[in-house]
Write a structure and sequence with these properties.
The protein is α+β, with helices and mostly antiparallel strands and 175 residues long. It folds into 2 domains: 1-88, NusG, N-terminal domain (Alpha-Beta Plaits, 2-Layer Sandwich), CATH 3.30.70; 91-175, no CATH class. 26% of the residues lie in helices and 37% in strands. The protein has helices at residues 15-24, 66-70, 90-102, 158-174, and strands at residues 4-10, 29-30, 33-39, 45-51, 56-61, 75-78, 80-81, 84-85, 87-88, 107-110, 126-129, 132-137, 140-145, 150-155. The strands form 4 sheets. Strands 1, 2, 5, 6 and 9 form a 5-stranded antiparallel beta sheet that branches. Strands 10-14-13-12-11 form a 5-stranded antiparallel beta sheet, with helices on one face. It starts with a strand and ends with a helix.
Length: 175
């Protein structure tokens, strides 16, 4: 049977617990964590990790595994789209994993859900970074996750934003 990524809805503040329970059952899962930098003692930055999408965990399963997921403690149900459990594109999970590992203090913006959209933002310059279409405006980098109905946003340092802008300008010359 073919495996797909699905989003499951959990009880509040149970995302990490559900991910741990699923891992113990050897079910592949992903709970995106947002690395938040906070001021610690002695003016040092300290990283804390909080779930990026509250009450959501992603699972990579076959249709047969759905009953096991539903019986897992703290799982409420699958997220549905048009009467069926919503399938999340593999590329979106990979992009989300990469984005959350690269950037801290990531924010979410709600967008319309469009699972057939290719994942681009048309109102701002687009840059292809490692095969992912992202947009950059000032010092904010955005990645669209169309089947999830979100755009994730991170602020980058000015020097990195300048590098991205130069890359964009160069790519315009060759297109």
């Amino acid at each position: 049977m073919k495996k797909n990524w699905y989003a499951i809805y959990t009880k509040p503040c149970c995302e990490k617990r559900v991910a741990t329970l699923l891992t113990k059952r050897k079910i592949e899962n992903y709970c995106p964590l947002n690395r938040i930098l906070v001021s610690g003692s002695m003016n040092k930055k300290k990283a804390i990790y909080q779930p990026l999408l509250t009450s959501f965990v992603f699972v990579y399963i076959t249709d047969i595994d759905m009953a096991i997921i539903k019986r897992t403690n703290c799982v409420i149900n699958f997220v549905y789209w048009l009467g069926k459990p919503a399938i999340i594109q593999n590329e979106e999970i990979l992009n989300l994993q990469h984005f959350t590992s690269e950037y801290s203090n990531v924010q979410l913006e709600k967008t319309s859900v469009n699972p057939t959209e290719a994942g681009k933002i048309t109102s701002e310059p687009l840059i292809d970074i490692n095969g992912k279409l992202v947009s950059l405006k000032n010092t904010h980098i955005k990645l669209s996750l169309p089947s999830l109905g979100y755009r994730i946003v991170a602020e980058v340092e000015k020097s990195n934003a300048d590098i991205f802008n130069k890359t964009y300008q160069r790519s315009k010359l060759f297109s």
